[in-house]
Amino acid sequence: RLALVLAALAALVAVKYYRDAEVARQQELALKSLGSEGLFLFSSLDTNNDLHLSPEEFKPIAEKLTGVPPTSEFEEEETPDPNGETLSIMAKFQPLVMETMTKSKDGFLGISHVALSGLRNWTAPAAPRSVLLARQFKAFLPPKNKLDLGEPWWIIPSELNIFTGYLSNNRFYPPPPKGKEVIIHRLLSMFHPRPFVKTRFAPQGAVACIQAISTFYYTIAFRIHAEFQLNEPPDFPFWFSPAQFTGHITLSKDSSHVREFRLFVPNNRSLNVDMEWLYGASESSNMEVDIGYLPQMELESQGPSIPSVIHDENGNVIDSRDPSGEPIQFVFEEITWQQEIPWEEAAQKLEVAMYPFKKVSYLPFTEAFERAKAEKKLVHSILLWGALDDQKQQTTVCLPVPGSGRTLRETVLESSPILALLNESFISSWSLVKELEELQTNRENEFYSKLADLHLEKYNFPVEMIICLPNGTVVHHINANYFLDITSMKPEDVESSIFSFSTNFEDPSTATYLQFLKEGLQRAKPYLQ
């Protein structure tokens, strides 16, 4: 018996040795075939390290190339029952604080009063109150293949990506909404009569995930990217793009009853709206760009949905008021949740679905340096005029094209090799210039003030990528416009020797950003030893 056991162990060791040798051989062949950069990309997609890409592992590339998630996630819409329950929604709106616009610093010099008329006149919601059928919110229910907590699906899929470009700026009236767009359009129309459910730039649409599950109910967290056109002819277009709309809905699994609904634009950062307006009637016309702060833009249900028609136990319609003339009060059962995740976790899942580059955690500025010190890593910091992870555009003045911040997040920052290296060797952060300017003047914490000062010394409009030590010392940096310029050139035309192109990698942007990160690591070695 002992001999059999020893023989079995020997066989297992032999099998393991053979498998390890085979894996090593396949890796060597892969390295010869792909080169080191190509193998790095392949390995970042090969999540189970079997040197084969399954359809699920290839899915991010497929979605990136096509721009459309699998059609199995979407179902046909049904016509709501007009006698079903109704939900009363209230709109709360505080207009943009004009003083937060960059152009306000010079008194809006050179900007005609007509250009800003739509913005100045928008002081209240278009419809302070609206009553909707509960069944209309069926659009928020998960498809049958997305019933796990935190697993995102698209309510309205994005039809744009880095390959398809962007939609026209020279438009005034939204296209008629279709399917699941209808309820989103109806809700946003409470704020302004001209909402565009699909934004001009990617990522468009609306994404959702289950936050909580009970026997009869879901709580669904959602995120919507939409914008408004504030002007009408004969004025030129003025686009108003909130950073995002987010919120949650608690509804029954058959959508007959809505317990709770809230939608809002986050106001926790100092700037949360992008504005762009044309000075002509064509795509080649000059465009002005600015950002500002919107204190409140919110929709909230006044209570649970209630029956529009009330029946007694015999099925007869009865009066909705009691004998004294008061409306009948409904009592709703308390929901016992069987599974749930925190709101923060659900919001993060939605953010990654919209922005794959957020598979890397981007920490707040000061927190990033504390974490880098604790983990003995470098800080990979991006300093911008506008935000990196929402719909505040990174455009340059007078150019109606996607800007450097958007281009970075849709290309190099979400590429698999960059994600892998950032997660392995860096603590990442992005910051608004305005926030660091405020931190720079805050003398309550001299260390934080100095960190902001060191960053701002290196900043050039509109986006600066910075690599620094945990003490704030900058070891490497590059401006996004310069980076995009050199990566759009042929390798032989690049005069600077600061960056080099990899001959083994097809995408020069990714290869050059990898080189930027690796050179930062190399330059930091003397300081970290």
TrEMBL record:
Keywords, comma-separated and alphabetical: Signal
Entry's Gene Ontology cellular component terms: endoplasmic reticulum membrane
Domain of life (superkingdom): Eukaryota
Signal sequence coordinates: 1-18
GO BP term, pick one: calcium ion homeostasis
Protein name as catalogued: SELN protein
Underlying gene: Selenon
